[in-house]
């Protein structure tokens, strides 16, 4: 399973912290870490908005493995470039197993692949649903700072919600990293 990490506009150390927090949670789950390939798109500043830079990176790293399934995990402004790159990657014949947007507030998310949103508070979760989301989403409760969602997902507590029904159905309380781990476990099995 290849995970494409598309950071936002922030200190690169936050992305390293995100990956460490996610991997520490994955190591506690039944996901086989040996089969996980994490690729971080090396863009900074406004280039995080550029799907062309994301696609260039994907082509450089996975060009000969177009059919290999990928999961996008994107954050903040990085969601903009990542969703457009995911559409294009799929149009080229690539397989997008899932798209996960962390605090991609205001970014329309549609595609013929599974989409999930994680939000730093309920308002961001609720106000983003009309712009597209999948069935399984997450919001922090109590609310946290925007960058905390990326820096320390293992410390952010909140709710897994089923947004496929008219009124969100809260299914359980867990951390953002546990929610991500459960999504990855689900897609690893498919």
UniProtKB/TrEMBL annotation:
InterPro entries xrefs: AB_hydrolase_fold
Keywords tagged on the record: Membrane, Transmembrane, Transmembrane helix
Segments traversing the membrane: 36-58, 70-89
Protein name: Uncharacterized protein
Organism name: Anabaena subtropica FACHB-260
């Amino acid at each position: 399973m290849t995970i494409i990490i598309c950071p936002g506009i922030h200190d690169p150390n936050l992305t390293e912290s995100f990956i460490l927090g996610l991997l520490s949670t994955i190591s506690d789950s039944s996901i086989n870490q040996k089969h996980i390939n994490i690729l971080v798109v090396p863009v900074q500043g406004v280039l995080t908005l550029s799907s062309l830079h994301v696609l260039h990176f994907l082509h450089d790293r996975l060009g000969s493995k177009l059919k290999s399934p990928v999961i996008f995990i994107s954050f903040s402004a990085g969601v903009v470039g990542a969703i457009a790159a995911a559409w294009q990657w799929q149009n080229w014949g690539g397989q997008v197993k899932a798209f996960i947007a962390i605090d991609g507030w205001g970014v329309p998310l549609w595609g013929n692949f599974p989409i999930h949103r994680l939000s730093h508070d309920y308002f961001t979760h609720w106000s983003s649903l009309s712009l597209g989301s999948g069935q399984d989403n997450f919001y922090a409760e109590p609310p946290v700072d925007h960058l905390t969602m990326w820096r320390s997902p293992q410390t952010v507590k909140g709710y897994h919600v089923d947004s496929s029904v008219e009124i969100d159905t809260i299914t359980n309380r867990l951390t953002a990293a546990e929610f991500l781990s459960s999504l990855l476990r689900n897609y690893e099995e498919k």
